[in-house]
Each structure stands twice: as structure tokens, then as C-alpha cells.
Amino acid sequence: MTAQPMSTGIVGIVLVSHSAELAAGAAHLAAQVSGGTVTIIAAGGTDEGDLGTSAAKVVRGLSEAESGAGVVVLPDLGSAVLTVRAVLEDHADAESVLLADAPFVEGAVAATVTAAAGGDIKAVAAAAEEARHVRKL
Amino acid sequence: MSASCEQESCEQGITLSGDLHARPAGALAVAAGRFASAVSVTAGGQSADAKSVLGVMGLGATSGQHVTVSAAGPDAQEAVAALIAILGEATKVGGLLRNQAGRRSAPAAHPPATAETCHLTGTLVRYSTFAVLAGAEGGCGGVGVRRRCRLDRLVVGRAVGWCG
Q1: Which of A30, A51, A69, A79 would suit a FRET pair with B94, their CA atoms being 20 to 30 Å apart?
Q2: What secondary structure does DSSP assign to A72-128, as a single string?
Q3: Do B16 and B93 share a domain, yes or no?
Q4: Boundaries of every domain in chain A
Q5: Nearest Cβ partner of B54 from A20, A21, A109?
């Protein structure tokens, strides 16, 4: 294994969930496990506070999570992916944002820990996606 | 317990004084990820990549169990020393990580001296060193605005904290 390339800053994480509580809870858990050094933005629920996703919250999350090293976005279920994709189509610098195909909680924790260790945006997204293959029993 | 090391490979064991829960597993993986060497943790005949927090948690290592850290690469010796130190400290009852968790749960009794000491509740929209609350209610003129707060606790998506 080679060292994860060091970035100029720490990769940010945006958690896009249909539920504000789920996004905030996953952000809290990932922050605790990784030591609290990574910026994790919870973008959950609609603008009205209902179950659903909000493009405006995703846009705001991307900007708040960006500190120069890029942002990895984790969606929870189907239409969260659609919302993020719609936002990314309009995003000026698509290379600085990666959408990870990963289980939400495990991916959030794995991505955040890799970001805390100084992994670059590709390493952070890969850590999230590898979470799919890690057995918990 | 002493380490068994050659130039580019190193191994050392430790008996855990607490369970290898999520937080110590996270601390271990964050530290392991900073080394160039490949690092693995072995417990109960199962091995995991020490840089994978989920893999380390999946070992299910518990208090009293013997765990071995092995590394291969240019900084193998430093990696093993660092990870053994974390395993010794982080799984200790009342150790570093548990103390940090304890501080988060009880800032109401010890608000920071420089902080405005008013209590806020709101929806957690950002959590890093500080939590950012949206639609904060309470003192500090914070009604309906976003405030950076020291996170106290999270109750069903509602964060409670102190103005920073």
C-alpha cells in the first residue's frame, strides 16, 4: 500500500439525506469517530423541514465544506442522488466534488476518518465506496 | 511488551484494557492513515487494514484480548509504536477519548470563560470543531439566526450548545 497523497487542506464531507435528523446524526457520529477535525455538513430534509432533499441545502453544503482540498458528497437514497447530480451539473468545478456510491452511515464514517488522516479527495471517496464491502459481523 | 522489528517491518502486541469501540477504532485508523507503511491489526485470528476504520471495528476486539499491530514499509517502526500507544491509551477506561466524550456531554457546568454564557437550541447544520446551529432559539440575540456554538448534545436532530 502507498501513502495517501497529502492535500493542501482537509477534504470536506457533505451528507445528503431525506431526513435532517439522519444527516445530522450521521455527521455527529462521523465527527466523533474521526476526532472532530473534518468539516462535515449535514444537508438533510427539504427547505420546509419535511422529509426530502433540497438543492439549495446541497449548494450551501458544498460551499461550506470546501476548504481547498475538495468535497466528497454522500447521498442516502435514490432521489438524493438526483438532487446532487442536478446541483453538480451546474457546479463550476466538478473535479473538486466527488459523489460517492456508498452506504450512508458506514461511508460517512470511513470517508471522514480518511479525510482526517490527510487523504486526498479520491482516497476519501474510495474509502466511502469500499465501506460497501466491509462486513460488520 | 517489546516490538519485533527489522528495517522495514515491525510487529508488536498489546492486551487491550478496554473494548475497541468506534472512537478508538477511529483514532487508530486516522493515525495509521498518516503512515506510508501498510499497517494491519490482528485480533482473535482475524486481520484488518488498520487504515480502515470499518475493518478495525469489524474485528470486534474486546477488553482483555491480545491484539497485534504489524507494519511493512519505510516507516514501519514509527507506525507500530504510534498505534500501540493509541491502543494502550484509547481503550483505557477513563482514557483520552472517553474524557473528550465526557467534556462534550457536560459543558453546561463549565462554559468557556470567554463565551457568552447563554443557552441555544437549533438544528445542527454543520459540525466540525464548532457546531453551527440554524434557527437558533434562546439568548445571545440568536433567535432565527445561524450561530457557531460549542456543541453540548444532540437530541433528535436538535443541537444544544454555547455561543463561541
Answers
A1: A30
A2: EEEE-SHHHHHHHHHHHHT-S-GGGEEE--S-HHHHHHHHHHHHHTT--HHHHHHHH
A3: yes
A4: 12-133
A5: A109
Q: Which of residues 70-129 of A touch B (CB under 8 A)?
A: 106, 109-110, 113-114, 116-119, 127
Q: How far apart are CA B102 and CA A71, in angstroms?
A: 30
Question: Which CATH superfamily, name and number, covers A12-133?
Answer: Phosphotransferase system, mannose-type IIA component (3.40.50.510)
Is the distance from CB of A72 to CB of A125 less than 8 angstroms?
Answer: yes
CATH of the domain at B19: 3.30.1340.10
Residue span of the structural domain in which B79 resides: 4-102
Give the ipTM of the model, two decimals please.
Answer: 0.86
Low-confidence ranges of chain B (pLDDT < 50): 94-119, 125-131, 138-145, 151-160, 164
Residues B15 and B90 in one domain: yes
From the candidates B126, B133, B151, B152, which should be mutated to test the interface with A, based on the most A CB atoms within 10 A?
B126
Please give the mean pLDDT across all residues of chain A. Answer: 92
Closest by Cβ to B33, choosing from A37, A106, A119: A119
